Amino acid sequence: MSAPKKVVLAYSGGLDTSIILKWLQTEYGCEVVTFTADLGQGEELEPARAKAEMLGIKPENIYIEDIREEFVRDYVFPMFRGNAVYEGLYLLGTSIARPLISKRLVEIAHATGADAVAHGATGKGNDQVRFELSVAALDPDIKCIAPWREWDLNSRTSLLDFAEKNQIPIAKDKRGEAPFSVDANLLHTSSEGKVLEDPAENAPDYVYQRTNHPEDAPDQAEIIEITFEKGDAVAINGEAMSAATILTKLNEYGRVHGIGRLDFVENRFVGMKSRGIYETPGGTILLEAHRGIEQITLDSGAGHLKDSIMPRYAELIYNGFWFSPERDMIQALIDKSQEHVTGTVRLKLYKGSVRTIGRWSDYSLYSEAHVTFEDDAGAYDQKDAEGFITLNALRLRLLAARDRRLG
Asked: Which residues are catalytic?
């Protein structure tokens, strides 16, 4: 790959991406533009600006953006319309943030005339794939630089030595081995590595940063209501809110009641298994509520079809194919199914659990007249079931008769 002239770096302001920034300058002699995204990770981002300036980045080349609303509205909510869960448990909190970061990297590259972008993902993880597949889909002419796959800084000691040599500030707690690594955004917190690497060992309590321990949650249950329009949450307890505000509010409910903890060993796209501790408090509540409103507004055929393609949809997101034609096609099917997913769900939050306890909608398909155990006033003729069963049993009878004859 020819040396880039200008690179847009996904920059957190932390030690690793600061080292990457300086490495890009020294290795390629190129101009660097930094992009720091506020995805609701809960950290002050302005220090990233000061650190970038200290490392020689021009003020006009420092981008710090609050993209929480776009993140929830255009990425999290569409994903939740599909009830996407990877390998039965993981709500894809890290996976869904990467396409948006990649999109902004490419847009900033176009705006600044950069011919390359760079990320801080390692060569062992999924994020390198997600970033680079997204960039390739959005602009195949932009180079994508992955320093962790190129440099020889292959230990914490060598990283710290490089930082000291280049006068990059090192926080005191970074001089030792970090107990675990954390990725956070408005949807979730992900913790991996170090003290969590042995899946047989219980994760220390201090790993959980976003939720109360369920045993310490309030002894009194809390009841809330979430209103949906076309599959997206639009109000909590009757109060209309923006997408990001809704998720922020649900995160607070989940924090208080210890909801959304997950200790999970997953299959990474690159082939290895990894153990992570995930906290998705608001997302766990949102998923339960969305399924609750779908129960009464989705036809069985549509609902079962959605459920059958969900694992494929979740896998596409996990593996980094958000901007693929197949994801677009599945999304169109999902969004079509949500045209009448409008109504309100009542939920009970209590000591780590969230349960639907009521749901109603003007588009409800639930007919009490048909399911009642009392007099249905002719709404349903039970004798009709006999022919239905006879026809469905026909092939089973033929199979049984053949097996008896041959056996």
From this structure: 16, 98, 127, 181
